[in-house]
Structure formats: C-alpha cells, structure tokens
Design a protein that fits this description.
about 350 residues; alpha/beta; Peroxisomal Thiolase, Chain A, domain 1; 2 domains; eleven-stranded mixed β-sheet; 11 helices; globular
Length: about 350
Amino acid sequence: MKTCYIHSVVSISAQDSFSENDTIFEVREYSDYKISAVHPPYRDFIPLSQLRRMSPAVKMGVAASKKALEKGNVEQPDAIITGSGLGCMADTETFLNTLLENDEQFSTPTAFIQSTHNTVAGQIALGLKCKAYNTTYAHGSVSFESALVDAQLQIEAGEAKNILVGGVDELGTEFMDYVHLVEQKQMQPIQVSLSEGATFCVLSSEKKEGAVAVLKAVEIRSKIAEENIITEMHDFLKTNKVKPSEIDAVVLGNNGDAFDVYYENLQQQLFPETDCLQYKKYVGEFFTASGFAFWMGAQLIEGYTLPKNFFIRKAESKPYKTVLLYNQFKGSQHSFVLLTQC
C-alpha cells in the first residue's frame, strides 16, 4: 500500500490547541456537563460578510481547514473529505423549532439547507473554488476515521495526491441538554462532558519538506466484546507488523463512563509499561473527538511536549516514533489508528 504522509494537523477544541504555535501550554479544567470550544478570532480567516451567517461548525471547519492547508503548503487540494456525527446542529434546531412555532406551515428551507452534514465541506470547497472530489461521512463516532479510510483509498488508487481531511461537530443550544437528561436517566450518574471541535489535516502521497508523520493504518470495527479487545488489538498490530513493545505511546478515549473498561484492559494487559494518554477529560465527548487524538499523536511524533495532565502514565523522556490511537463509543464503533515517524 502507498505511504500516506501527514503534512499538517490543526485542531479547534475546548483547549487552546488552535494557538499560533499549535501547542497547549496550560490545560483548562472543566466541571460542567457541556463545554464549548475555545473559538479563535474567525475574522482572521473568514470575511465578516460571510462570518455572521455561518454556524459554529462551519466557522470551525473553514478556519481549521484554511490553517491546515497553509501549514501543509497546499493551495488547492485534490479532494475534500470530512466526517461529522451531527452536522450543523444549531441550524437543525432552528429549523425544527420554526416548524413547531409555525405549526409546520410557512417554513423557509434556509436553516434546513444549512443543517446538513456536508455543509462544512461544501463551504470549504466554495471558499477555495475547489471542484474536486468532495464527500462527508456521518458514521457516528467513527466519522473522522471513515474520512481517513477514504483518503487512504484515494491515495492508493492514484486518484489524489493532496487531500484535505477533517472532522467537525458543534454543541448547538438545546439538543445536548436532552442528551444529558437521557444519559442521566439511563445510566449511573457519571458526568461525561459533552463538547465540540474540529480537526483538519493534509494527507499526501508525496513526502515533502515539513512532513509531520505517516498514517500507517486505520481500522474500524462495529462490535468488539469486552473480553476480545486484547485479541483484536493484537491482530491489528500483527497485520501492520508492529509489536506491542514497539508502541511508544497509546492515546485512549477515556470519558469516565462504564465502557472505560476497554481502555483499562488494554492499558493493563497489553501496554503495561507504555506511555498512555487521555484527552476527553479535557476536550469533552463528541462524535469526532477522536480527531483531537489524531492531533495529539502528530504532536508527539513531531517532538512537541504535551502537558502532563494528558498522561495517564509517563515513562522517561524519549522520542515518539510509533503512536497508537484507540477510541470506542459505548462499547461499539471501535477505531484503531496507527501513526509512525516519517
């Protein structure tokens, strides 16, 4: 399979990850069940005439994609591939509330048109005047990984050289409150912070100056029994000719719910001495939160120092050459992503 190089990774999150040097120096602590992203000055990336008509998801997506393309030295991508679990939730809420208020009559379609999952990718393409391959995956918590898989296939088939890949989800104003109420009724009272964010990267079939890392492998599994997670991870690593001892760091999607046992089993049984990191405690849970883990993995391989808050276990300082990302959502939609040094 052709090598898939990562030339840039940019992330907007509940931490200040979109700062000028893309490095988090001080971790922000949250206690609320709903936390907003740290929004950058969008006027630096988007004309004011367009900015006031954009939803938070579109703002995050356009700003992050522009910075990713700039860092990756790409003016016009050969494809734009995004993932989003909920699409533009704020516009969805506006449309549905208008239906209720007007008794399903005299409704304008604007909010509905702007609420679809592919709105972000469409706006990015319009801004770039890009007529290339453009698609969006709405696959729940593996939406971002689905976009990565598609990008790998495009590069392998020779259909594209430079691809803009991203994942984005927004909080909205009401829907997450309902989700929180349902969660509290159905599960034990564990506080899982719900959040939003956007991560965009440039993937390429060519190794150029400034390449960050290599996207070695991505796999998605629908269901894995708790007792089989060790075997499944072993198989994934064996397929990619990597031993567990060769993994320098594992980034896990712990969020504090009952399904964290998957991460605990891996940490204790398969990677008992490997550096382990977590991120949802600090950026919250949303369908494309794993994009932030992708950003963390790239940071580690590029040689940046992440705050100690992110580390569940930290060994002595060492270079990170191989980083494994693992995420799941309520025991399903498992994703394995392997990043290596160029």
